[in-house]
Amino acid sequence: MQGTATNPGDEALVRQTLAGDHDAFGRLVAGHARTVRALCLARLGFHQDLDDLVQETFVHAYQGLDRLREPGRFAAYLARIAQNLCVDRLRRAGRAGQTLDVVEFDPPAPHDPGPDPDRLALLRRHIGRLPEALREAVLLFYFEQRSYAEIAGGLGITEAAVNQRLHRAKAALREALGEVEP
User: Fold this and answer.
1) Which stretches within 19-101 are classed as H helix?
2) Cα-based distances in Å from 120 to 89, 123, 161
């Protein structure tokens, strides 16, 4: 997609993998596993097979790597594979088109007492009910701490679209939580 980021580091690792360096693919997995997990989580919610789905995404990516025309867009390639696998999983489970009730988050760091548990549970429910595109942006930016460029590259959208999705998500969450600004 025009205006989306490419990653020269990914490009080099893809080329090394295609040349037979399996450690290079391991570095790609290490660099993208949390993001793929967040994308699957945004689509499925917490799912008992979530980790298997992440692994399956990388297996498919490895098997089709020689067909990737733009190695620097490996993140977008992974996102498409993850999306397709999630859609297939939802279709098989008869859950296509349903909203999520709960989204899993990492617990706050021990030195950070974190938000009120009841408020956090409410926030989780509302994030789970956001449209998928907004939910992805929230999880990747706030919980995976990815930059706009990384999110744009992974989702195959522009950085302006990432900004717009985050803005819309924050507005929807403020409204849902009763924090509408004057």
Assistant:
1) 22-44, 50-63, 74-93
2) 28, 5, 27
Please indicate, yes or no, if residue 125 is contained in any of the structural domains: yes
Boundaries of domain holding 31: 8-97+112-176
Instruction: Output the furthest CA–CA distance in the chain (Å, rounded).
Output: 59
Structure token pair of residue 19: 């040349």
Cα–Cα distance for residue pair 57/81, rounded to 1 Å: 6
Q: Within a domain: residue 3?
A: no
Cβ-contact 36, 15 below 8 angstroms: no
Q: What is the pLDDT of residues 57-81, one digit of tens each?
A: 999 999 999 999 999 889 889 988 9
Q: Model-level pTM?
A: 0.67
Cβ–Cβ contacts within 10 Å for residue 117, how many? Answer: 8
Could you tell me the two tokens for 96?
A: 């296509």
* Token pair for 41: 């989580």
Instruction: Decide: residue 94, CB within 10 A, 0-12 exposed, 13-18 middle, 19+ buried.
Output: exposed
In-domain check, residue 102: no
Domain holding 147: CATH number? 1.10.1740.10
pLDDT in tens, 134-173: 988 888 888 778 889 888 877 878 999 999 999 999 999 8
Is residue 172 situated within a structural domain? yes
